[in-house]
Amino acid sequence: MPKREIAPLEILQLFSILASFGSFWLGEEEILLNILLKGYILMKRVISLRIGLLKNQNP
Length: 59
Hints:
Number of strands: 0
Radius of gyration: 15 Å
Low-confidence stretches: none
Oligomer: single chain
């Protein structure tokens, strides 16, 4: 079975779902913003890693 890559958008959607559950349980917007921010930073890292890999493949 071939491995399927996780798209950055899927990562962000997962973090937003986790953030909404966290804010629902604890009722704090700070938690929502914190988790979304971490998801955004992770997404940017994934994108920059992919760009770096593409640049290395095509000299």
